[in-house]
């Protein structure tokens, strides 16, 4: 799939709000309100991504929005829990040393000594730094099937090679 066709989930709908077709919005973006900066929204309806425009939005104990064409509560209720996505090409371009998390998933992780630790399976925030969840296919010589490696640039993360799909880390394989 080309970047032009790739779909990125940026949020989801919560329950309907009011009687005029409004929906609660759960944003997955860093700044919750910035979900409304991305256009058009794609919503999977009957297995197919369909474009929607946001007619209006506001803050009300979180975020709520009105999609163009949704006029009544009953119709809006059918969108509850559906994902909100955009095409990848609407995301801002990053500098060479910046990455979207999605780019790191599936990358091979090796130590600076060349020991293979596995592949990036997940990433999560801790408040102080992000953490890579690295999974090995089988238990390795140290009995590890999963490692949590802090994403600390330069100190732990030595190199990210997009072309080779490889992350080099300064990390003890026994840890």
TrEMBL record:
Q: GO CC terms on record?
A: cytoplasm; ribosome
Q: Does the keyword Lyase apply?
A: no
SUPFAM superfamilies in the cross-refs: PRC-barrel domain, Translation proteins
Q: Which residues form the RimM N-terminal domain?
A: 9-88
Q: Which residues form the PRC-barrel domain?
A: 96-170
Tree of life domain: Bacteria
Q: Check the record and name the InterPro entries matching this protein.
A: PRC-brl_dom, PRC_barrel-like_sf, RimM, RimM_N, RimM_N_sf, Transl_B-barrel_sf
Q: Name one Pfam family in it.
A: RimM
- What processes does the entry annotate via GO biological process terms? ribosomal small subunit biogenesis; rRNA processing
Sorted keywords for this record are:
Chaperone, Cytoplasm, Ribosome biogenesis, rRNA processing
Which GO-annotated molecular functions does the record name? Answer: ribosome binding
The record's subcellular location field reads: Cytoplasm
What job does this protein perform?
A: An accessory protein needed during the final step in the assembly of 30S ribosomal subunit, possibly for assembly of the head region. Essential for efficient processing of 16S rRNA. May be needed both before and after RbfA during the maturation of 16S rRNA. It has affinity for free ribosomal 30S subunits but not for 70S ribosomes.
Q: Which NCBIfam families match?
A: 16S_RimM (TIGR02273)
Subunit structure of this chain's protein: Binds ribosomal protein uS19.
What family is reported?
Belongs to the RimM family.
Supply the domain comment.
The PRC barrel domain binds ribosomal protein uS19.
The name on file for this protein is Ribosome maturation factor RimM
Please spell out the taxonomic lineage of the organism that makes this protein.
Bacteria, Pseudomonadati, Pseudomonadota, Gammaproteobacteria, Vibrionales
Task: Name the encoding gene, please.
Answer: rimM
